[in-house]
Queue: 2 jobs
Job 1
Amino acid sequence: MDKTTIIMKKKLKLKDPILIVGLPGIGNVGKLVAEHLKSAFPTQKIAVLYSPHFPHQVVMLKNGGIRLVGNRFYLIQAKELKRDIVLLTGEAQAVTPEGQYEVNNKIVDFFKNKLGGSFIYTLGGYNVSRNMADAPKVYGNLTRKEMATNFKNTNIIFGKSRGMIWGSAGLILAFAKMKKIDGICMMGETGFLDVDASSAKAVLLELSKSIGLPIDTRNLDKIIEKTAKLVKELEKQASGFAQLGGTGGQPGGDRPIYIR
Amino acid sequence: MDKTTIIMKKKLKLKDPILIVGLPGIGNVGKLVAEHLKSAFPTQKIAVLYSPHFPHQVVMLKNGGIRLVGNRFYLIQAKELKRDIVLLTGEAQAVTPEGQYEVNNKIVDFFKNKLGGSFIYTLGGYNVSRNMADAPKVYGNLTRKEMATNFKNTNIIFGKSRGMIWGSAGLILAFAKMKKIDGICMMGETGFLDVDASSAKAVLLELSKSIGLPIDTRNLDKIIEKTAKLVKELEKQASGFAQLGGTGGQPGGDRPIYIR
Amino acid sequence: MDKTTIIMKKKLKLKDPILIVGLPGIGNVGKLVAEHLKSAFPTQKIAVLYSPHFPHQVVMLKNGGIRLVGNRFYLIQAKELKRDIVLLTGEAQAVTPEGQYEVNNKIVDFFKNKLGGSFIYTLGGYNVSRNMADAPKVYGNLTRKEMATNFKNTNIIFGKSRGMIWGSAGLILAFAKMKKIDGICMMGETGFLDVDASSAKAVLLELSKSIGLPIDTRNLDKIIEKTAKLVKELEKQASGFAQLGGTGGQPGGDRPIYIR
Amino acid sequence: MDKTTIIMKKKLKLKDPILIVGLPGIGNVGKLVAEHLKSAFPTQKIAVLYSPHFPHQVVMLKNGGIRLVGNRFYLIQAKELKRDIVLLTGEAQAVTPEGQYEVNNKIVDFFKNKLGGSFIYTLGGYNVSRNMADAPKVYGNLTRKEMATNFKNTNIIFGKSRGMIWGSAGLILAFAKMKKIDGICMMGETGFLDVDASSAKAVLLELSKSIGLPIDTRNLDKIIEKTAKLVKELEKQASGFAQLGGTGGQPGGDRPIYIR
């Protein structure tokens, strides 16, 4: 537990898997998409990643148990697809640059060498002061610009996003490129929301087209609604939990379970 | 001294020991309980833990001496119990995630492998905006949910606490679980107090029931009173000590000795 | 990718090269000069430096691709000079003291041992509350004071700058001195601008005299103008991008490409 | 340069040396005493300590040169004393707990093993809201309380200081104790001044009595006066230098040379 470790739950032979990475971040866009996929498809947990670079926290579970903060790899085998999907999500990203380099390197190595995968989708938010009434646009950045032709059937916008991609959504792509794997970072426009479900929906729809997997939007819309309600509730609660750090429970971190 | 080190003072054969962890944290609940146990029972210091991940401080002692900031393991052999109690307390927790992982790992390893223990109680505060007039509730989280039956004679509430447990109270439990030891984190409701003695009393009473060890509450109440008085005094003093960091003495850290 | 690494693109035999270091920093003076040199002369990328001590970011490229944040070494072979110029620039400096020591040590070692160089120019800003109407002065500090005679044909002011040089501009010089290479840190007066092009112009002119390489100032002035315009634009945009951190794109980092 | 290193300038056989540590810290008390000793006695630089845990800075020297931020050991051989004095001072302390542990451990090891010393004086400020009109008291803490008898001829107050000693003044003492060397931390009362020369004078006088070395107070008073004047000047200047970090010169760090 002193080093970043990926523990594989079972040995599996995967069919040319793709990796979808949805972790906490700007607008929690990636995290929301990942949690939706988890609720929309049967999943199987295949590996867990722990790291001393994650925040020193433990999740209190509904059943009275606990779980160390970590990232988890889930297998999704959709009958519509010939390829397996591996979904990576979790409670946290590494908190320092050094930790980010270590964790994201391990993720790419694991996906390439242990799971035999060759294409990665990282999902995140693109922070603009967008008009919340408009539909959020989805921007894309690629390991190799030539890959853009593979996304012709989508509305992903290439070459218009500017600035920096922070954290796993960027570094996983950069390390993939260095290790000769391809990938795309898909970012939904987002603004001032901590949890932006409509940006997540936009990304999910483009992801759906990209991988050729139809997704029931009714379930998706329910989540948007639920989230909107919970966000409001949390905002109300939040005023009471200003204190941070130290030992003990922190209900200020009490997000709806599909965005943990 | 460059690495986290546990120095054992004497070799002992303990009787199926339990570990009680009370360190500084939210409301200083765990720390207060630990200091009360130290004053309520004869104790024997059996080991000291030093770490470069603790704050770079030295405690000024009443006798004019000094002590490096650290954690200490005390042995309590209560005649009412067939098992030995090992109490862990100290001035600090590690300040970084990496430090927290290292220190708490070592604590669990030491307790399991050197002391031969198999059950851990970590104590802390649960941060809510509670009505200070109500008696603080005590919440519990377990390494395994099935353990809840062992706490039927208590008023510990399982499965209702939400969010994250920060620091040693959480990580020690998580590492215990990974290393196949059982444990519970007991958290007393607390709010805006830096030192919440009534929350600590609530936790102490549940701990007393849990381990089957009667504890004289008069002494406990005296501490609550004394703390309340000292807290007021400290609040008065505090206005004068805004400056932080650097070399030299810092009476701003001058807590009553039973909560150091 | 877990350690600071310099990847050499091609093996070259350089002619007694000098190193010019222009990285982001106070007023972005060094960075601006470096980007101007890149636009004023044909360059050849000869090496890339990556480090886990840089911010955990990826640059979104105009062509829809990405680039891991890093530093790059460019070769400039000006026909007016008998010596080769190696220019070091990039998006970032290391964010911790430990990272700064590691990265800057590697830079000096690489320049001395792999490129066979023996003189280093580091460029930066000197933070004063200067009257923006006055021409910015240029201050110099040397690895050895005797070297000042080599700069007699310039207006660089020696022995009048006070205080500390932060980051690469200082550490590279200090490590050069320890490794028996000579060098100068040239600092242009700057004040409250994030991107101070006129301070950069002042430094560039002194650099030009120092190395004996004439530089077309028209191009330079265009950059000053463009920058001024872009800075204004950025200031306008900036109000919309207060949120920081997390995963995803951050157009708040959207500087004009010649100062990235 | 990647690790904390002590470079010895010359091999010397010292006469039962004592170590006096005066580094930047609360009120810059220790630093001021050290700089006064340097100006009051002939000194010889015998060793330099560099560390990647110090701030990533370089000092701009009056002669136009530079110096990497570090700590320096000076030898003072006063004819009044049979023992040699080694004075440790410099521009900085380590900025992280891990760095503090590493650097201060190395200092004690070096003094004990390379210089053959056996007693250490660390100097610092004791932060109280003192009435600036009163003479500052001097508090002491010892590696062993029995040592107090050795300080009977002084006005050092033992057993009354409370709270924590931060940084080198505390850790060096703690590590000395662990490595079976004795020592004292002498702290002068100080309040809101960044540079408290009268607190330093109080400490210097007690140090003088402790080691039996008379010190000309005229020179001392001059420094107090000069400092007072410079502090005022700095306060005036300070308003102009709010910006921090990045590459380049920082005259905000431009303290009078005897407190650098």
Job 2
Amino acid sequence: MQKLVEVDPWKIKQNELGFDQRPYESIFSLGNGSFGQRANFEEKYSGKTLLGNYSGGIYYPDPTKVGWWKNGYPEYFAKVLNSCNWIRLDVEVDGFSLDLSELNVKSFYRELDMKTGILSRKFKVELPNKKQITVSAQRFCSMHNDEVGAISYSITSDQEVNINIDSFLDFDIKNEDSNYEDYFWQNIEPHTNEECDLIIAATKKTNFWVALSQITTLNIKNDNFISSYESTKGDRFISRSFDCVLEAGQTLTTKKYISVLTSLKYDKEKLIDLVKNNVLQAKINDFEKLKTDHSEAWQQIWENADIQIEGDIKAQQAIRFNIFQLYQTYNGKYSYLNIGPKGFTGEKYGGATYWDTEAYCIPFYLKTSNSSVAKNLLIYRYNQLQKAIENAEKLGFKNGAALFPMVTMNGEECHNEWEITFEEIHRNGAIAYAIYNYVKHTIDYEYLEKYGLAVLVSIAKFWAQRVNWSEDKSKYVILGVTGPNEYENNVNNNWYTNYIAKWCLEYTLESLKRFPKKIQLEETELNRWKDIIDKIYLPNIHGTGIFLQNDGFLDKEIFPASKIPINQRPINQYWSWDKILRSVFIKQADVLQGLYFFENHFSEKVIKENIKYYEPLTVHESSLSPSIHSILFSKINDHKKAYEMYLRTARLDLDDYNHEVHEGLHITSMAGTWLSVIEGFAGLRVNEKGLYFKPILPEQWHSYCFNIMFRNQRVKFDIRKKSSVLINYGDQAINIFTNCKPYILEPHSKLTIVC
Amino acid sequence: MQKLVEVDPWKIKQNELGFDQRPYESIFSLGNGSFGQRANFEEKYSGKTLLGNYSGGIYYPDPTKVGWWKNGYPEYFAKVLNSCNWIRLDVEVDGFSLDLSELNVKSFYRELDMKTGILSRKFKVELPNKKQITVSAQRFCSMHNDEVGAISYSITSDQEVNINIDSFLDFDIKNEDSNYEDYFWQNIEPHTNEECDLIIAATKKTNFWVALSQITTLNIKNDNFISSYESTKGDRFISRSFDCVLEAGQTLTTKKYISVLTSLKYDKEKLIDLVKNNVLQAKINDFEKLKTDHSEAWQQIWENADIQIEGDIKAQQAIRFNIFQLYQTYNGKYSYLNIGPKGFTGEKYGGATYWDTEAYCIPFYLKTSNSSVAKNLLIYRYNQLQKAIENAEKLGFKNGAALFPMVTMNGEECHNEWEITFEEIHRNGAIAYAIYNYVKHTIDYEYLEKYGLAVLVSIAKFWAQRVNWSEDKSKYVILGVTGPNEYENNVNNNWYTNYIAKWCLEYTLESLKRFPKKIQLEETELNRWKDIIDKIYLPNIHGTGIFLQNDGFLDKEIFPASKIPINQRPINQYWSWDKILRSVFIKQADVLQGLYFFENHFSEKVIKENIKYYEPLTVHESSLSPSIHSILFSKINDHKKAYEMYLRTARLDLDDYNHEVHEGLHITSMAGTWLSVIEGFAGLRVNEKGLYFKPILPEQWHSYCFNIMFRNQRVKFDIRKKSSVLINYGDQAINIFTNCKPYILEPHSKLTIVC
């Protein structure tokens, strides 16, 4: 854990420049669900940096790189693509490049205001000729209009200086994460006219088109407009360069308006006109108006999604940072987009869609947004069902069985390690679980009939073919899987996988009954499902209530993670892979993930027994782990551990627990953080009848307060030591179930609960 | 199975040219233990071909290519390097390139005479101008002087023609098996003088130097010597070109003498002088003399190593092909060389040393050569012991424990799949077993004390650290391994691995007792070994005598391989990897490999039970499998199955069973073929007291006859239906044990055995 940023309830602040900007570039990233970027400096920086501009859904199918090819491997691994760098402003003062890594930096300050979504920066440097330059910059990716971004960049000098500013739309970028060092773009066309610059390019192979436009204005003191410029069209860029003389004490302000559009949203032939109009409109609106609209959009989001924590400023900052990043990543408008593990903050992991979306993000969006957001995420999978069926066929399954990919952009599998791709099949379970979760929250049975059911049936068919009958055990078994705990590979009878497979079959049968005419299945198929439900292997450890992680687990040397020498943590950085696999240590919640999903199937005693057994063996080297543990610790009233796990998940990136924040943020696990407050501390559950609520207050906190969306009505919870106040802002009464008694929360009314 | 070549007792013959030369290039490969090559044509060929010239021990450490890096991975994968192409003769006749893929081929014949080791070729083509050209070529890599090769290439025309011949030493070659398409050579220097051409080059990174020289002579009708030439020095080649006019009916003969030397054998600065002298000497000797010396060297080898089979010409051809290829690959002179799975016949698999050497090749060389050959192979591992200790340290082992690499050139691991590299640890067992085998054959205890013991102790230490105590089983277990059956990965308690680990500890303890002062170990270490020997987990299947392949095996769906649809065989070409892993099918002998090694530890009943259980589940998709099965079937007197398995291993490449001969030959498995005759049909065993002998005669054979070397004495076996005749060519009497009674085979005498 290291101190990267200052603590503040609403802001992220950096006071020291440092040399390696990459951790800060991740933390200060901006995005608006459609496009986004790392917090690279506008001007040149020759220190350590990782350039990143990304357009949602734009990917490149990089040929798979493996040591030994295995049958069934996907042919490519989809890469999150570095797209056009639109923030680039090359600045020269008296012929010296403004480069914070080269100049004498007198002061540096960077701030992300999460309330308004504005990234700002202020610094003072001394040039080799001893003149002092102060820069003040702001920028944002508009949440109000997710096709627009803007920069304001002001330069003041203590003496007269010559300034050259060159404003770029620059496709001369490359991916750090590239298997064969290819350049991924083609057909790059720069355009320019009096008012604005444009560039359009296509991705190789996938032929996505991305168009950008920019208008760059320069003013001195708001009245002295600089209009003469020189345009340069490069092979991969367009730029517009301005020269001026700045008198001592004067301020030169550059404003840069941009628009980004892609062919995912618009017809290719319309892109140029649209992107040009957009940027003209943005300039007419002016930076201040755009900024106000943007900040108001954030205000709207915070109204629903904010969590206020009193008495614990670190926790407060952290939870807001998590919520802020989630909404920057996915705005819920487009069913062709999803939530990459690193969002718009880095390239790593490729692909956009993991089971993280279903297991972690959907519950977050379900409770903080209109239900259409979660629905779009579910329809994304529905739209990819055919590809999931083809994926299963490649592995030898038939008759419409579907295996959704472990990692994907377009529905095709693009992970290339067999132990993950072929074996981490529990993802199919999480996708079914998200359907169940969505329906439970929304009672949207129309969705279930129209979309969900087909997905469930194909998933159920997969499980029915994937199990086999063990003569030896007289049970159905599932062989050769990797569970959520990726520190075991190719194991038999992973309890979590077996359990969720069984549950999928049950839930699909139940859903089929609701729409008996929608999908007709053979009696033999249905009977097999029922037989599997009855006879699947789900062992306990020697007559205890503890479920067996997987076959062979008890052959391991069992000792708690606390006994691992501290200089060997995280073990994935210090131990060889075979040692990790043989060890008893669990990367992330696995049996416990199952107990979290299906908590009502088990007694509190059983849940406690399992936590007590597995938690000491868990090393939490997946960012998805501590949040689930936090929720379960809240459930069993272990406040101390719940809070410890909460802090670990909440400040994972801000405090860079795993020494990897420079690669980008752990976006999807941030949803887990949110869940550890709402489902953990507040003990909130949704079922068809209403809300269940059993809060605890961490002793470090005076109170906490949040809203949730329940069937598109906003409900506020204010949780204090002795009571909780609930406000229903909607038009429908809501049933509230608590530990002591049930209540009815009337429309537009307040309810105080003491129990 | 396809018919590629004609059946003949001593020759391999090809009558049809075909388009794809690659299968033939593999089958007709030449080598002499030091260097070798695929049977590429001397002249240009623009059809399908895989160029291959190789120098033993010369490799390139190609950076490892994997999808996701895992801790402990080796940094590179050693590649068998394509070295200088010295056979190249570009021939133009009347300006037409002599290219069999382009011209009208009237006849084509190629022959490998295994008795003499000569590759010859004869063909007739018609040029576009209707002139007919006949070519007759011969070449060899000298077994008499393993630094020399020679080609004789004769051209006859039915009409007067202009001929240009350009003779190359050509480093402008590339590896098909290359991770990043790199060129692996540098510092290439061509030299030329009146008499000869030279080229020297260094491998990148490893900086091995390879020097070649050539002398090219042209004669018409043996008297008309063509002496005017033109030399060309390219960046990567040197060539010498000749022009002449050939009258109708005349024959132009080109003779090319070459020498190849490497810095593995000589000082770098001496290479040029040595290689020049070598080629001058070769030319003085003349082609015919070199050829005679070469053929006599082969005759020597055949004297010890030949197997004569009467009544079965296919089996006869096959066994000679196997023996021929083994001796072409490894001549036993150099302890820095080893036996690559493809020898000098292809690039695939990289590296030179697998456990194949110890498990298959050493028993072959032990019985066909002077014991120094096997000893050199053992010393090769001894020389790499320190690297094996470092390899184990990388994986977390300590205190001198060694894990020998799965694949290596220089002692460092260079395989890059975790399930093989980290988990296929049974290779350590095979290395210990080879020491035991060598000592049993040779009673060379001096070797054991000086070299073997240190290797054994480090291997024993490895096993002692690699097991762990299972509280659940109250046994020592070995978790996370891949056995010889690579169609299971990351399994627990592979019976073969557990058994050989136990045996290694026993044999090391026994060996330590023989030399009590050589290596001192702590009492606690020795006690742990003894405790493991007592308490290692080695289960049978439900009270039968059948050993359990590995934990979880009985959870699989068990049905015989014969039920797999024929269009899904081999399964590794049709099934996805996860399906293979979940299936019950065994790639190669695994439990049975253990029963083969340790046959005296088990009753014949137990061996029979295990064969009966595992054989139907075995798909033999490793070339190493059928031979072991053949030996075991001989042992249990199932002659029919023994013969079926023999044919499968013996003609694997000649009949291209697995559709992969174009990549090269399965050199190491050829030793298994030999074993299936000697240890299988002949039932020959060696122990400290003498030879044990229990022959069977396959019903397809009239008789078979072979020699073995026993303690550096040659013993001949002539096995017929009713009797066997043994001849001892040595000076020492030998004890012979048979099924009925023991004999003494006196020096220089003959013994007829009927029983």
